[in-house]
From TrEMBL:
Residues 9-217 form the Urease accessory protein UreH-like transmembrane domain. Keywords: Membrane, Transmembrane, Transmembrane helix. It comes from the Bacteria. The chain crosses the membrane at residues 6-36, 57-80, 86-109, 169-192, 204-224. Coiled coil: none annotated. It comes from Ferrimonas balearica (strain DSM 9799 / CCM 4581 / KCTC 23876 / PAT). This is Urease accessory protein UreH-like transmembrane domain-containing protein. InterPro entries: UreH-like_TM_dom (IPR039447).
Length: 228
């Protein structure tokens, strides 16, 4: 699959998952905001906000590089027939499950998110060392931790990066996904009420869910044709 296409498709997935981002990350954005030194100018606070998100997207990209490289290495090592198609099938199913989760039709991924919480909790002592967040470097590092928050949307996109079986493609997929989530999370951090209200609307959540299901269905269909 074309690398540019995957990058922009992953960006669309991130954009369509905006409603989920509000539910998952609202508390974290609020906590980061409270950790900033008080009475800073808005321009400086926005600088911290973008540093947070740059750290978060960097974590996603690093994870994409890692899983894409691992899948490629395993494929070369074992040369299993239909190996990449099977990974693509997994990615398609995960995107469908994510759409069902966002649409509130089948909250199966909530269990996967809960399973990842021990990792997030284990990072708590390291996160505490960054407080108070009084520099953009600390904000970037805090965002890097944020990128490892247990999230079904991230896990779903990571399976897509895994299916790429290439470190560059995997990194591009996760970077595109992270950039797609940026508008929602910047709006949240900047208290952009009108944007926040629009993203929370049920109709937009349903549209987002259907787009994710449709894209996951297309990926599943392609994978099944390659296997059969």
């Amino acid at each position: 699959m074309n690398g540019d296409y995957q990058f922009f498709a992953a960006m669309l997935v991130g954009l369509m998952g905006a409603g989920h981002c509000f539910g998952m990350c609202g508390g974290i954005v609020g906590a980061f905001g409270q950790a900033l030194p008080p009475h800073r100018p808005m321009a400086e606070r926005m600088g911290f906000l973008f540093a947070y998100n740059l750290g978060r997207i960097s974590s996603y990209t690093l994870a994409g590089v890692a899983v894409g490289g691992l899948a490629g290495a395993l494929g070369t090592l074992f040369a299993v027939d239909s190996y990449l198609a099977a990974l693509q099938l997994l990615a398609g199913i995960m995107l469908i499950l994510m759409g069902l989760y966002i649409g509130q039709w089948l909250p199966l991924l909530a269990h996967i998110e809960r399973a990842g919480k021990p990792i997030w909790q284990a990072m708590a002592p390291l996160r505490q060392r960054l407080l108070p967040i009084d520099s953009t470097a600390k904000a970037f590092a805090a965002g890097g931790f944020w990128g490892w928050l247990p999230c079904g949307l991230v896990y779903s996109t990571l399976t897509w990066a895994l299916a790429s079986a290439d470190p560059v493609a995997g990194g591009m997929i996760m970077a595109g996904f992270g950039l797609g989530t940026l508008p929602a999370l910047v709006a949240m951090g900047a208290a952009a009420d009108k944007i926040a209200q629009m993203i929370r609307k049920k109709q937009l959540k349903l549209l987002s869910a259907l787009v994710l299901i449709a894209y996951g269905g297309q990926m599943t269909y392609i994978a099944l044709n390659q296997i059969v």
